[in-house]
Amino acid sequence: MKRWRIPAAFAVVAAALLFVLFKGFGRDPHEVPFMLKGSPAPAFVLKPLGGGQDVKLSDLQGRPMVLNFWASWCGPCKYEHPVLEWGAREMGSQAVFMGVVFEDTEDNALDFLRRMGASFPQLMDERSRMAVDYGVAGVPETYFIDAQGTIRGKHVGPIDPQTLAARVKELSQPAPASTAEAARQR
Prior knowledge:
Layout: H1 5-24, E1 45-48, E2 55-56, H2 57-60, E3 65-70, H3 75-91, E4 96-102, H4 106-116, E5 122-125, H5 129-134, E6 141-145, E7 151-156, H6 161-171, H7 177-185
Parallel strand pairs: 3-4, 4-5
Antiparallel strand pairs: 1-2, 1-5, 3-6, 6-7
Subcellular location: Cell envelope
Main location: other
Organism: Corallococcus praedator
């Protein structure tokens, strides 16, 4: 009678493990579900890095936007930055590219950009209020906002050129029905 307990326990553990593996495989780890997908992008007013006139989300609406949160101390951000520079040069006519400095000093961020290049505007999120509003968990994180101001997606970690190009292209396509409906209901 006790012999069946060990195989049954093994079968239960194996089934649970297979379920976990099945649910995890085939998914892009950079596709992180988050509550803001399909929602209007949270408004912001930030100062440009190095000074200048405040930048407001409302001033940028009407064009798709690529919004990248980064920091000079972030190793993956150093890897990703040339991709964003390329994207801003190659796809800047299709989308506004904006960087947002996260949990960093202005001096460190300016030094990083002097070394790495700065072909698109950078904003200072001094108290991380914008990062909290957007649900940033760490850097780098890139948000894709359509011309109507709706967040279409989020990429966690350093983005590659192919993914960036595909995401910018998606921003010019009509929003999926569920995304458009969710934006109208808010």
